[in-house]
Amino acid sequence: MKKLRITFNSPVVLAFAFICLIATILGTVSGGSITNDFFVTYRSPLTNPLTYLRAISHVFGHAGWEHLISNMSFILLLGPILEEKYGSEKIVGVIALTAISTAVINAVISPNAGVCGASGVVFAFIILSSFTNFKEGEIPLTFILVAAIYIGQQVIEGIFVQDNISQMAHIIGGAVGAYVGYVWNKRR
Fold first, then answer.
1. pLDDT tens, 151-169?
2. Residue predicted with more confidence, 38 or 187
């Protein structure tokens, strides 16, 4: 019988999850001050170097353990499949594009609101995963259904529900996932 061994199968996704874990621990032990200072994006002066750091780092910070566990469940489920299909560099690109897009759009549309967490990345991964069997000249029914369910729900909640969840970040993440899924698979 062969010995089983643990493999480091998805370096980007595992590193992302580990950084999110460390950021949440730091936020917890600091009473939230480290999260607010380094892992929340909001409109701030372009002369402040932390503005640029937070434009990326906000996807690592989470409001608490439930928020982290919810996001990491999806990231660790979908991320390795996507990283295997598209490669580590492209997954880094999806994460960065989602983070920067969310930070910029949030600063323009909701200047007084802060955003943190990997929910936008989760939605990018959900939509991107629906493109796994994409063929040029076709639109996968799974993409239509996933987009209608996930993005439609966020639009409805954004209009009718008052909570501390950024539906805008979810919609932006979904748009990033749809865009890169289409572009990457169109060329195959």
1. 777 777 766 666 555 788 8
2. 38
**Domain of 33?**
11-186
Q: What is the DSSP string of the chain?
A: -PPP------HHHHHHHHHHHHHHHHHHHTTTHHHHHHS-B----TT-HHHHHHHHHTTT--SSHHHHHHHHHHHHHHHHHHHHHH-HHHHHHHHHHHHHHHHHHHHHH-TT--B-SSHHHHHHHHHHHTTTT--TT---HHHHHHIIIIIHHHHHHHHH--SS--HHHHHHHHHHHHHHHHHHHHT-
**For residue 110, pLDDT beyond 90:** no
Instruction: Report the number of distinct structural domains present in the chain.
Output: 1
Does some domain include residue 1?
Answer: no
Q: Please name the residue that has the structure tokens 């560099």.
A: 89
Instruction: Specify if 40 maps to a domain.
Output: yes
Its pTM stands at 0.89
Residue 140 lies in a domain: yes
State the CATH number of the domain containing residue 68: 1.20.1540.10
Rounded Cα distance, 18 and 70, in Å? 15
Residue 2 lies in a domain: no
Distance from chain centroid for Cα 37: 20
User: Cα-atom radius of gyration of the chain, to the nearest Å?
Assistant: 17
Average pLDDT of the chain to the nearest whole number: 89
Residue corresponding to tokens 């750091």? 53
